[in-house]
Amino acid sequence: MSPTHKNLIVVLDFGSQTTQLIARRVREANVYCEIHPFNISLERLKAMAPKGIILSGGPSSVYDKDAPRVEKGLFELGIPILGICYGMQLTSYLLGGKVERSDHREYGHAKLIIDEPDEIFHGLSTGEPGHQVWMSHGDRIERLPEGFKALAHSKSSPFAAMANRELPIYGVQFHPEVVHTEIGMDCLSNFIFRVSRCEPDWTMENFVEVTTREISERVGEGKVICALSGGVDSTVTALLIHRAIGKRLTCVFVNNGLLRKNEPETVLNFLKQFDLNVRYVDAEDRFLEKLKGVEDPEKKRKIIGNEFIKVFEEEAGKIGKVDFLAQGTLYPDVIESVSFKGPSATIKSHHNVGGLPEVMKLDLIEPLRELFKDEVRKVAKELGMPYELINRHPFPGPGLAIRILGEVTKERLEILREADAIVIEEMKASDWYWKVWQSFAVLLPIKTVGVMGDERTYDHVVALRVVDSQDAMTADWTKLPYELMGRISNRIINEVKGVNRVCYDISSKPPATIEWE
Ligand code: XMP
Where do the domains of the chain lie? Predict the structure, then answer.
């Protein structure tokens, strides 16, 4: 993949929580960046021909028995290197400096005083009053390796930045990738452009052009099939491929009966303008039949996943010979890495188009494999998707089935659909929709007593789930204004027949999850 990128920065991952952030920051500077494990072979690394290498931070101490290390040869490749935190300590250690073991962590904001002007600090003032940076380290450097110069200090780090300009190798003890480091983007840009001499050629406009060309070369006269959910990933995948090969792409849109109110119509309507080849399959009855009497969340997920594969296969069979299966896989799913493989995958079996590749035995086309989610959104914009669709909240593959606790029936789906539509409508009307990660309604498997007019009621309970999150790995419940909660509750109880009570979910993830099943 990589040699296609003339301007490449490689991040070697030592297990930091913020490794992914480093790559995103580099890309924000319009330079392509890939993450690889710290123990990648020097041969592979050389073959990629990166213009610069960044060594990430990590939780280890260089003195740990199993501390992740790199071969010393890395420092002799003549490729500019920037070590961040653990990356800097490891560089020092391997090149003969002294790293002091410390049980005391320096964590949080610190003031960095630049003592020595240098390329990496180009444009930044030296001396007092200093710059706000973010530190998170235990060990610290006590003596620099030979040939290195100290560039900056902080209260508890005598060597907060170092350089050997000839090699050139740099190290910073603080984290330039996090927003709390005000000069972070300056330092990274200086490393990328001034030290590594990259050209800023990674733009989404460029990406669309290059990817379209690559797809059309790869597919040739072949045919591609793609499962379309209306979500931003699958839609962008389809639009890119369509741009490359037109009608030789067939998209299959399966209505599993578990979608939100008006969802199939909205998606199909939007797609009309692109002249896509879309096969719409109304499979509601099939899915509901299979879900009859099923209450277990994992069983529901499996049934929906399997049925989806069956429906998709049948549709594929109807269009004759197909050569490729397109998928909207994103970069975070393919990074070979020692960090961020979150536990969520094993907590719930995730259904997107998971089982398809094995069953279909087709070559895969994954045009978004190199992109982060925010980049996909930029591509979506580039391709003409409206803001509303690009920024829709995530919606799980098994749809409303995992937001109906207990059995999924047509009647219960109808109740949830109406309640959910009110949630979305009010969230949008108040502009809160765009500020939160997700907001939706959940139908609980209980009934409670209420009173309406002079009548006793015995009806369903809806839970309102609204969360803030960066990446769905952790989440916190959103402190919505009471007034908005009240309005949503009133409307649901008054307008949705069969509901007489609304609750607000105030659990964070972990220990709860975002979805209820
Ligand atoms: P949880 O409930 O595990 O959800 O905290 C994390 C994020 O993933 C979404 N989610 C899914 N997305 N297929 C998907 O495409 C699934 O099977 C699935 N299950 C959960 C959920 O909406 C949240 O954004």
Answer: 8-195, 204-390, 409-504
pLDDT in tens, 364-412: 999 999 999 999 999 999 999 999 999 999 999 999 999 999 999 999 9
Q: What is the pTM of this model?
A: 0.89
DSSP 114-125: E-S--GGGTT--
Q: Which helix (H) or strand (E) holds 299?
A: helix 297-318
Ligand 1 pocket, residue 515 CB under 6 Å? yes
Q: How far is CA 74 from the centre of its chain?
A: 30
Pocket mutation for ligand 1, best pick of 302, 329, 348, 471 (most atoms within 8 Å of C-beta): 348
| Beta strands in 393-475, from DSSP E residues, in sequence order | 438-452, 455-468
Please list, in sequence order, all residues whose beta carbon lies within 8 angstroms of the beta carbon of residue 485, skipping any fewer than 6 positions away.
Answer: 464, 504
pLDDT, position 3: 58
Closest atom of ligand 1 to CA, residue 516: 2
Does any ligand 1 atom lie closer than 6 A to the CB of residue 351?
Answer: yes
Tell me if domain 8-195 and domain 409-504 are identical in fold.
Answer: no
Q: What's the pLDDT band for 2 if we cut at 50, 70, 90?
A: very low
Round to the nearest angstrom and report the end-to-end CA distance of the chain.
38
| CB neighbour burial string for 191-209, b if at least 16 within 10 angstroms, e if fewer | bbbebbebeeebebeebbe
464 vs 375: CA distance, rounded Å: 30
Give CA–CA dist 218/329, Å, rounded: 18
396 exposed, middle or buried (CB, 10 Å; 0-12, 13-18, 19+)?
buried
Please give the class, per CATH, of domain 8-195.
alpha beta
> Over pLDDT 90: what percentage of the chain?
86
Q: Which CATH superfamily is domain 204-390 in?
A: HUPs (3.40.50.620)
pLDDT tens-digit series, residues 318-350: 999 999 999 999 998 888 766 544 333 457 777
Say if residues 379 and 204 touch (Cβ distance below 8 Å).
Answer: yes
Q: What is the mean pLDDT of the chain?
A: 94
SS3 assignment for 170-203: EEECCCCCCCCCCCHHHHHHHHHHHHCCCCCCCC
Is the minimum distance from the CB of 350 to ligand 1 under 6 angstroms? yes
> Mind telling me the catalytic residues?
85, 175, 177
CA of 394 to the centre of ligand 1 (A): 8
Fold classified for 409-504: GMP Synthetase; Chain A, domain 3 (3.30.300)
Q: How confident is the model at residue 491 (pLDDT cuts 50, 70, 90)?
A: very high
Return d(Cα 386, Cα 399) in angstroms, integer.
22
* Distance of CA 262 from the midpoint of ligand 1 (Å): 21
Compute the average pLDDT of residues 9-31.
95
Instruction: Return all residues near 322 (Cβ < 8 A) that are at least 6 apart.
Output: 223, 224, 225, 250, 316, 362
Distance CA 47, CA 352 (A): 34
| pLDDT tens column, 188-203 | 999 999 999 999 999 9
